[in-house]
């Protein structure tokens, strides 16, 4: 009888050791997997940021959202524009966009040229705005594309300098 009790105790303690060993291995495996996922996911962001910075330096004519945010430290002279109210492109024609914007110049001397070409600049902005749909202007990415398009179209007609950026000071879609 004493031998049977010893065998049962040995089997239970041996079973407990195996169970403890399995639990420890599972915990280590989970920790290792978590660390691997962290390093794999965070390592790509740093490489992408470095690549975006290199592209922004190599091609300053194309403004990416990353490049635009770095330029906020050195904002140039501003040229305020009057309010724009345009119908958005839609089948029903029931949506409109009200926008007020300021134009960032690369040098103060460009203001004189913008004064002379103000009707042409307003026409360009109205054409660009009215060619958009609600879906195109309702997202942040859409607003960034809209800014880039307006900047590039206005820069095509300028001789004394370039527009660096556009800032929406009022943007209402209804």
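^ Assign residues to that structure.
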């Amino acid at each position: 009888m004493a031998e049977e009790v010893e065998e049962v105790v040995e089997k239970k303690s041996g079973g407990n050791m195996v169970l403890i060993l399995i639990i420890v291995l599972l915990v280590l495996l989970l920790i290792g997997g978590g660390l691997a996922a962290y390093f794999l996911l965070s390592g790509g962001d740093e490489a992408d940021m470095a690549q975006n910075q290199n592209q922004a330096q190599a091609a300053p004519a194309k403004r990416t959202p990353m490049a635009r945010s770095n330029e906020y430290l050195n904002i140039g002279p501003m040229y305020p524009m009057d309010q724009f109210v345009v119908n958005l492109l839609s089948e029903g024609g029931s949506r409109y966009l009200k926008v007020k914007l300021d134009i960032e110049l690369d040098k103060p001397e460009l203001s004189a040229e913008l004064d002379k070409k103000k009707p042409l600049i307003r026409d360009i902005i109205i054409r660009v705005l009215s060619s958009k749909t609600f879906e195109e202007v309702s997202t942040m990415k859409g607003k960034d594309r809209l800014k880039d398009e307006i900047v590039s179209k206005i820069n095509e007609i300028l001789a004394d300098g370039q527009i660096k950026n556009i800032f929406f000071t009022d943007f209402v879609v209804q």
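Residues 74-173 form a domain with the Tetrahydropterin Synthase; Chain A fold (CATH 3.30.479.30).
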